[in-house]
Amino acid sequence: MRLTQDLHKAFPIFGVALLVLTGCKPVGPNYSRPNAVAPAAYKETGATSALQPPPNPTGGAWQPVSPSDGLLRGEWWQIYRDPQLNQLEAHVASENLNLREAMEHYLAAHQQVIAARSALFPTLSAGPSITREKTSVNGTSYNPSRPNAISDLSLTGQADWEPDFWGRIRRTVEAAHANAQADAADLASLDLILHAELAADYFQLRGLDAQASLLAATVTDLEHQLDLTQRRLAGGIATEADVAQAQTQLETVRAQYVDVGEARAQLEHAIATLANRPLEGFAIPSSPLVATVGSSSDPAQGPAQGPALALPVVPLGVPSQLLERRPDIAAAERRADAANAQIGIAQSAFYPTISLSATGGFESTHAGTWIQGPSSLWSLGAQAAQLLFDAGQRRALTEVARHNYEAQSAAYKSTVLAAFNDVEDQLSSLRILESESAVEQRAVASAQHSYDLSNQRYKGGVTSYLEVLTAESALLQNQRTNLDLQTRQFVASVGLVRALGGGWDVGQMPR
Prior knowledge:
The protein is an alpha/beta fold. Helices cover 56% and strands 11% of the residues. It has a domain at 70-120 and 165-351 and 393-508: Outer membrane efflux proteins (OEP) (Up-down Bundle).
């Protein structure tokens, strides 16, 4: 009973301390996001595969009801309507080892938040202690009036608390929470990069399949040309030089076909690694990339029929939305918040350290009277310590924290600038490749016409085989260039999706 009464008298002391604590503002500057200005519109607007938002009327009389309507969401690779790509992408999220590593880093950072927050509360400990002690009869502590063998039985509990008067712990929690959010954004950024890399590799692989198909058809045609030339030689119409030229061209194209196979194998290995699939037994069936022009990218229309793929139209949104949709921007901004909290942590060292402690329990020399009122004990204590001289260390550490914040603020602004440049680069690539592809298609048609005329002239005996050889080489080169441009358009489209954040937004960060 006495112990309970004494503790009731002591509790107001802790209550006052808690009240004072809750009224104390943490030292150090409160965080505000570094200012990064987004342009009003993107500079590059010429690509038909990039959907620009409608412009506001003069004076900004209206705004879209929901600016995010139509933007990419979720599994963005489905806009290409390629079932094989969808199947490969599904393995990245569930099995990629780099993503698993990043996830573990985030989970560790999340536990750091819990560990930092625990310092806001008292630490409690309790336990019994039982000792039996006998003093020496010949020792200085021997007293004939007391037994020289005694027992000491104690059961005590202890509470220690360092009230966060100056906000050091709260700033530590703030920094840990911001760092955990940055790690979550890093995870999302890596996820986006890996998915985009797989999609780019996949379209390059399909582009090589298209070139392999073209080269295989060309080899067949050249074999026929060689047979014709050999028969013309036997008939006395052609020359040995014509046969040698036909043989040389055939072997050259065969070598190009083999070279395409080497590049395709490397891309297949890269895709297997990204999807964490064993190379043994892993194979992607040949599927030549056949691009269609002007097709709708609406997923509701269902998958494209056959091997042909439409270059999808990617919605851009307004530039200011990029600040909320790029995970690397979010990570840099969260690290600026963490760096700002470090300033308050450094400044708290200028204030005294105050700690409170309390001990209570029972102690007796006999087990029968151990847990009884007269055996109770308690103590309350408070301690304050102020560092008086440190040769400028605290001030220097505070300046270090300030400079680190300014550096992280600059890194955030640099990341924003790089993100806008990234989008502009992909838009310009799509615009230029689209224009170049249109020109190249006309070049292919012209080269095909030239080859047909030369072949007719050779069969009619009007010209030498060298003219046919030259025309066929030009046709093959232009056809391969055209296929390469189509492939690069798909890769640039994936790059634009990645540059826009792939449907991610800051709302997906843990709170």
